[in-house]
Amino acid sequence: MKEQDLFPLLEGYNNISIFTHVRPDGDAIGSSLAWAKALIMLGKNVEIYCPDVIPERYSFLPGYERFQDQFLPHKKEKLLAFVLDCSDLARLEYMESQMSQVEKIVNIDHHITNECFGDHNLVKTSAAATAEIIFQLIQENNLELDQEISLSLYAAISSDTGSFRYKNTTPQTMRIAALLLENGVNPYLVSEKLFDELSLNKLLLLREALYTLKVDEKHQVAWMSMKESTVRKYNASPAELEGFVNYAKNIKNMDIGVFFYHGNDGETKVGLRSKNSDVARMASYFGGGGHPLAAGCTVKGRAGQVEKKVLKIIREAL
Amino acid sequence: MKEQDLFPLLEGYNNISIFTHVRPDGDAIGSSLAWAKALIMLGKNVEIYCPDVIPERYSFLPGYERFQDQFLPHKKEKLLAFVLDCSDLARLEYMESQMSQVEKIVNIDHHITNECFGDHNLVKTSAAATAEIIFQLIQENNLELDQEISLSLYAAISSDTGSFRYKNTTPQTMRIAALLLENGVNPYLVSEKLFDELSLNKLLLLREALYTLKVDEKHQVAWMSMKESTVRKYNASPAELEGFVNYAKNIKNMDIGVFFYHGNDGETKVGLRSKNSDVARMASYFGGGGHPLAAGCTVKGRAGQVEKKVLKIIREAL
Lengths: 318, 318
Hints:
Chain A is of the alpha/beta class. The first copy, chain A, has helices at about 5-10, 25-40, 130-140, 145-160, 170-180, 185-195, 200-210, 230-235, 245-250, 280-285, 305-315, and strands at about 15-20, 45-50, 65-70, 80-85, 105-110, 120-125, 215, 220-225, 255-260, 265-275, 290, 295-300.
């Protein structure tokens, strides 16, 4: 499907539902809100669905409150669905089974693993974010790109590129960002909301994690650990531990960072990050997987034993 | 002075010295290296001076080793000097007095406080970084923009905008970044070097600092402290404490973050950051100053007393 083919398709539908994936990130949320607003300005009835609750940190995005986590399809009229930022329909979790009530599915995504599950597929793996594709859709079809849409798209792109820091950032990403800033987006506000804001719990847990920091200079491995009971002590969520593994990985002269989360159930979730080594291969030894530089696995056993075993495999694999 | 007027000026000089400021940041270093390379490709003899040693984290920038911290002017021929990223000549510290040996000074800067001290002044306060002005100089004069120059300029811009996060980021900043990426710059490499890399000492000091974290929810103030003796215990430099104050400021629902560094000499250096309040005004009460959202002061007295006094002033000023 090409961007220009979209407009004729839209003409046949008054009711449109937008779906995005479980554990939604900035791109999932921002792309959905931007595309919803563009369609609403065309006079469409638009609903937005996500199988998870949208994290409160995204509440600065206009339309945030429109997300619904229960899919209640329009019954009277035929329904067009856009599925955004999903490599496959399983990313919609329980909503997947309800997609049969939809007449046509348009799949818009940038993941290289996309299964082209839609009736129409607009998959561009060169795009840093799904929001880049939405931007092009809006431009190619001469839809209005107002300040609200610009803010949602900018937040989505900034989120998926780590504020233009990751490898997926291209000249095109920068040119789109320039146009969105010209529409009145404040880059400082976006980055403050997306990247700077810390919960007090997160800082207190970071302090606990740093107290466990250990470094193996010879093998360039650094690791930290945390027990589930510690997280409970602060009445916090394990989601607050996101990113801690990077503190270990980012230490100068270290190659690999490991984070052990010892659950009360006798299972340890192991997060692995690397600057240069294939940690997915190491994770696969324990039945886990991921990307070469970011992987994970779950290992049963006593906390100390698990740490020893995982570190042994890492040292041997290097 | 306009960009196009530069070329005729350059024709009169074979020997060119580039100067940048004490405690050089990424913009100072990247702009100087980029401009030096552009002039070398024009066949000039170029020296680069900075009154401080260049931090090792910038060693990935091509030409890094060319920086000299002793100004030894060419004696035989007349000398043209470019002073980059300096609001006044005092930023050159002990090198300032030696500027009398220079025939002409070209002042290139983006700071609003620039004193236009040069024989020629190219001061653009709308530029996010001095590197943006260097980019325009290179473009307007049709000089070659090779991959090395592009890398230095990109690092400079990324550094001064916090990877396109600060308020100074403009559409023009993004458009320049797009062109630099097209020249083969790897944004991931730059951000890894500039933003991600942590020293082990920094993490260990962060752990110590987090142990002192206190929060006043009513007044939305959070603070941390550290003694000089703690820094010495780790054989670390106080420079490692840079940015710690932001952890306090970035806590959700907090407005002001404070960091107290208690020196062995009975003086406390106080760093103040805010999301919304004018902390420069608070710092000025103690003879300090800065920007509204980022300020500092030095206060004499016993550690506990100083903390009490400063927090009292903050609470009263709110």
